[in-house]
């Protein structure tokens, strides 16, 4: 059993987070009537809020736990990118931002009324291939300075060169964690661990009737894409770690589920921080499971502190 890291030890670990970043905007307001124009509620906005989203939220989770986080990503030359830059600086996250003038920084706008999300509006487009090529050079520069590499793939085009980045990271002896997206997991070949949820995994390997069939499908996937482990997050069923030696299951530890937004970010960020501190993967999974259970009891994209996690 690996020893739990002290806060002082964790503060010395550096995690490189690479992936699709977004700005989460929230408009909070009162809902007092239905529109005369259409059968929809009228929200009178009373408060606006901005939070780090996507890979930026993963980096924030790493930082909140007490480790050091560097975020490598592509943004547009717009106000949303400026907001992201301010938020990252305020939270002490080192940002290596590659700017694509043709890109609109991804924004997810959520309208909240009576503590309920009424609608989400997304603004996005894919980054330029030339700018994405520059990401590989920046990645190679940052790699020697970090203990663990974490890829946060939201399927927005920012990780077009992830196979090359994983190759560089493994050659440097760095653990590689991937929060995957899409149906082609071959692009994650060589990763240390990938962390799909149930629907994401089913999209790749198909559905399963029982645990034995699931085990067989995951073993075949691991062999096919050459990853050391698959951590399957299963919502109310907890999570299961599949390795060469078999499967280890952790039951769900949520005290009260309020909002699952960003829970996967918290899980993989906690896993990266624990691995960076020298903890074995199998020992790190229960801690990541606990972190996910804490964060779903909070509203919106949220984080977990070292004190909360180890209280």
TrEMBL record:
The molecular function GO annotations come to: kinase activity
InterPro entries per UniProt: Carboh/pur_kinase_PfkB_CS, PfkB_dom, RfaE_dom_I, Ribokinase-like
Q: Where are the transmembrane segments?
A: none
Gene3D superfamilies in alphabetical order:
3.40.1190.20
Query: Could you confirm whether the keyword Kinase appears in this record?
Result: yes
What keywords are assigned to this protein? Kinase, Transferase
**PROSITE patterns the UniProt entry points to:** PFKB_KINASES_1
Does this entry carry the keyword Cytoplasm? Answer: no
Please list the residue ranges annotated as the Carbohydrate kinase PfkB domain: 13-303
Q: Which NCBIfam families does this chain map to?
A: rfaE_dom_I
The record's section on PANTHER family has:
BIFUNCTIONAL PROTEIN HLDE
* Descriptive protein name: D-glycero-beta-D-manno-heptose-7-phosphate kinase
